[in-house]
């Protein structure tokens, strides 16, 4: 149950961070306005709180592992929201990052 909770928190963090960054991008770069950018800033702020609910007490470990989730999640966001088509190297890289998440977070430790 702890691993499932941790994975769900990583997914929520990715949604908040990637979604927030995308909203800022839309507000500024795509000139959709300050409301979009402001919503993105709020989502990015919420992302900052999500990691505090991870069961592991080590900030560095959590953020390092989250980096792999961010990589894979960013590609998935691009596919779903922007119609991005990753190539095989994008997919291989994302899988390597996710393997790193599993090793960093869930490898047996004494």
Salient structural properties:
110 residues; 79% helix
Describe what this molecule looks like in 3D.
The protein has helices spanning 2-28, 34-50, 59-82, 88-106. The protein is flat. It starts with a helix and ends with a helix. It is built from four helices and no strands. Helix 1 runs antiparallel to helix 2 (34-50), helix 1 packs across helix 3 (59-82) and helix 3 runs antiparallel to helix 4. With 110 residues, the protein is mostly helical. Helices cover 79% and strands 0% of the residues.
Secondary-structure blueprint:
Layout: H1 2-28, H2 34-50, H3 59-82, H4 88-106
Compute the average pLDDT: 96
Count of individual helical segments: 4
Q: What Rg is obtained from the alpha carbons, in whole angstroms?
A: 15 Å
Residue fraction in strands: under 5%
Largest β sheet strand count, sense and barrel closure: none
Could you give the count of β-strands?
0
Helix content: over 70%
Distance between the termini: 19 Å
Q: Strand pairing plus helix content: what structural class?
A: mainly alpha
Shape category: flat
Order of helices and strands: HHHH
| Low-pLDDT segments | none
Concise structural overview:
The chain has 110 residues and is an all-alpha fold. It has helices at 2-28, 34-50, 59-82, 88-106.
